[in-house]
Amino acid sequence: MDFALAPGAPAKPVPGTPIPEVAGPREETLAGAARLAGARRGIKVVPTDGAGLPGAEFAAAGGLLPGPHALLPGPAFEDWLDARS
Questions:
Q1: Tell me: the pLDDT tens digits for 5-21?
Q2: How many domains does the chain have?
Q3: Boundaries of domain holding 63
Protein backbone atom coordinates (compact mmCIF):
# COMPACT_ATOMS: atom_id res chain seq x y z
CA MET A 1 0.00 0.00 0.00
CA ASP A 2 2.83 2.41 0.80
CA PHE A 3 4.19 1.93 -2.70
CA ALA A 4 0.82 2.68 -4.30
CA LEU A 5 0.65 6.00 -2.45
CA ALA A 6 4.31 6.99 -2.89
CA PRO A 7 5.46 9.77 -5.21
CA GLY A 8 5.94 8.35 -8.70
CA ALA A 9 3.31 5.66 -8.16
CA PRO A 10 1.08 4.87 -11.12
CA ALA A 11 -1.51 7.52 -11.83
CA LYS A 12 -5.22 6.81 -11.66
CA PRO A 13 -6.02 4.42 -14.53
CA VAL A 14 -7.42 5.87 -17.73
CA PRO A 15 -10.05 3.83 -19.60
CA GLY A 16 -8.41 1.75 -22.32
CA THR A 17 -5.03 1.52 -20.59
CA PRO A 18 -3.71 -1.61 -18.85
CA ILE A 19 -4.68 -2.11 -15.22
CA PRO A 20 -1.72 -1.11 -13.04
CA GLU A 21 -0.01 -4.15 -11.55
CA VAL A 22 2.44 -4.28 -8.66
CA ALA A 23 4.28 -7.51 -7.91
CA GLY A 24 7.30 -8.75 -6.02
CA PRO A 25 10.73 -8.55 -7.59
CA ARG A 26 10.89 -12.28 -8.35
CA GLU A 27 8.57 -15.17 -9.14
CA GLU A 28 7.47 -17.06 -6.03
CA THR A 29 5.06 -19.89 -5.33
CA LEU A 30 2.41 -20.03 -2.65
CA ALA A 31 3.96 -23.28 -1.40
CA GLY A 32 7.37 -21.63 -1.12
CA ALA A 33 5.96 -18.62 0.70
CA ALA A 34 4.06 -20.89 3.09
CA ARG A 35 7.25 -22.89 3.82
CA LEU A 36 9.18 -19.69 4.59
CA ALA A 37 6.46 -18.34 6.88
CA GLY A 38 5.96 -21.72 8.53
CA ALA A 39 9.68 -22.15 9.20
CA ARG A 40 9.76 -18.86 11.10
CA ARG A 41 6.85 -20.00 13.24
CA GLY A 42 8.06 -23.57 13.76
CA ILE A 43 5.27 -25.00 11.61
CA LYS A 44 5.98 -27.74 9.08
CA VAL A 45 4.19 -26.97 5.81
CA VAL A 46 3.36 -29.96 3.63
CA PRO A 47 2.43 -29.13 0.03
CA THR A 48 -0.42 -30.97 -1.63
CA ASP A 49 -1.02 -31.79 -5.27
CA GLY A 50 -3.56 -29.32 -6.59
CA ALA A 51 -3.31 -30.48 -10.21
CA GLY A 52 -7.02 -31.30 -10.41
CA LEU A 53 -8.22 -28.03 -8.91
CA PRO A 54 -9.97 -25.45 -11.08
CA GLY A 55 -7.43 -23.06 -12.56
CA ALA A 56 -4.43 -25.30 -11.79
CA GLU A 57 -3.32 -25.53 -15.43
CA PHE A 58 -3.71 -21.77 -15.86
CA ALA A 59 -1.63 -21.09 -12.76
CA ALA A 60 1.03 -23.69 -13.67
CA ALA A 61 1.42 -22.03 -17.08
CA GLY A 62 2.17 -18.66 -15.42
CA GLY A 63 -1.32 -17.24 -15.79
CA LEU A 64 -1.19 -15.59 -12.37
CA LEU A 65 2.15 -13.87 -12.95
CA PRO A 66 2.20 -10.13 -13.56
CA GLY A 67 2.21 -8.74 -17.08
CA PRO A 68 5.21 -7.12 -18.77
CA HIS A 69 4.13 -3.61 -17.69
CA ALA A 70 4.00 -4.47 -13.97
CA LEU A 71 6.04 -2.54 -11.44
CA LEU A 72 8.33 -4.81 -9.39
CA PRO A 73 9.45 -2.70 -6.43
CA GLY A 74 10.14 -5.38 -3.84
CA PRO A 75 10.99 -6.46 -1.29
CA ALA A 76 11.02 -10.19 -1.96
CA PHE A 77 8.76 -12.15 0.40
CA GLU A 78 11.69 -13.63 2.34
CA ASP A 79 13.20 -10.16 2.83
CA TRP A 80 9.81 -8.87 3.98
CA LEU A 81 9.59 -11.72 6.53
CA ASP A 82 13.15 -11.06 7.71
CA ALA A 83 12.33 -7.39 8.33
CA ARG A 84 9.49 -8.43 10.63
CA SER A 85 11.46 -10.98 12.65
A1: 666 666 676 788 777 78
A2: 1
A3: 30-83
